[in-house]
Amino acid sequence: MQASIKPGATAIAAALALALCVGGAAARSLSTSAQQFRSTWRSLEFGNESPIRCPVTMEGSFSARTIAKVTGSLIGALTRVSIKQEACTNGTVAAFNGSEAYNGTTTSNTLPWHLTYEAFSGALPAITAVNLLFGRFRIGTRDAGGLCTGQYGRPEENIVLTLAREAGGRIASVEPVAGSNVINLFRTDAGICRAQLRITGSGAIAQLGTTTGITVTLI
């Protein structure tokens, strides 16, 4: 009896050890299918009631294809941000990228804007989203009535972006997380501006220069 049980116990122990190794590896890192990316929003909203809506494009790169799941670690940057100002409604928004018009002049350049790893959602290994902190940004807004011309985005603040992950690993969308999507007034240049703006909207993400999606896998 003992001779027949021992091999089975040994096999179970080996299987458990293998599972722990795989689980430990999965808990350490994420791997992306591409290092450079482009995120696009047909309509990103800036504001609370009657928000300004604009098409927005953001391009950047991860520091490496392998991302350690360490909260607070800098994992990449946005190096190009473009707001299609002529297509904005209810006002205009300008990215402080060194080229867009704001308040009668050209914005200063605050790029690169930082991306920091925050957390994942779901249970390993079937995670459903990856959350990133987006920081060091600056935008300028002017509402349609001209009641406010102001700059938003303080150096110390962040908003949370969530990258929704499909079962196969593909990132289906990117959007600010409700409750962590508020930016603060940095400076009022004209009129009376609200102390905070909320950013909302679901965008798409793909490999830079292509329409091919990006996948995130556990390693």
Relevant terms:
219 residues, mainly beta, 3-stranded antiparallel beta sheet, 1 helix
Number of helices: 1
Proportion of residues in β-strands: over 45%
Structural class call reads mainly beta
Number of beta strands: 18
- The string of secondary-structure elements, in order, is HEEEEEEEEEEEEEEEEEE
Terminal-residue CA separation: 40 Å
Radius of gyration: 22 Å
What would you call the shape? Answer: elongated
Strand count, sense and barrel status of the largest sheet are:
13 strands, antiparallel
The residue fraction in helices comes out at: 10-25%
Which stretches are low in confidence, meaning pLDDT under 50 for 5 or more residues running? 1-26
Average pLDDT across residues? 89
Walk me through this protein's architecture.
The chain is elongated and about 50 Å long. The protein has one domain. It is mainly beta. Strands 2, 3, 5, 6, 9, 10, 11, 12, 13, 14, 15, 16 and 17 form a 13-stranded antiparallel beta sheet that branches. A three-stranded antiparallel beta sheet has the order 4-1-18. Helix content is 12%, strand content 53%. It has one helix and 18 strands.
Brief characterization of the structure:
The protein has 219 residues and is mainly beta.
List the helices and strands and how they pair.
Blueprint lengths: L1 H27 E4 L3 E11 L5 E11 L3 E3 L5 E10 L7 E5 L5 E2 L2 E2 L6 E11 L2 E10 L3 E5 L4 E5 L5 E8 L5 E6 L5 E10 L4 E5 L3 E4 L8 E3 L1
Antiparallel strand pairs: 1-4, 1-18, 2-3, 2-16, 2-17, 3-5, 5-9, 6-11, 7-8, 9-10, 10-13, 11-12, 12-15, 13-14, 15-16
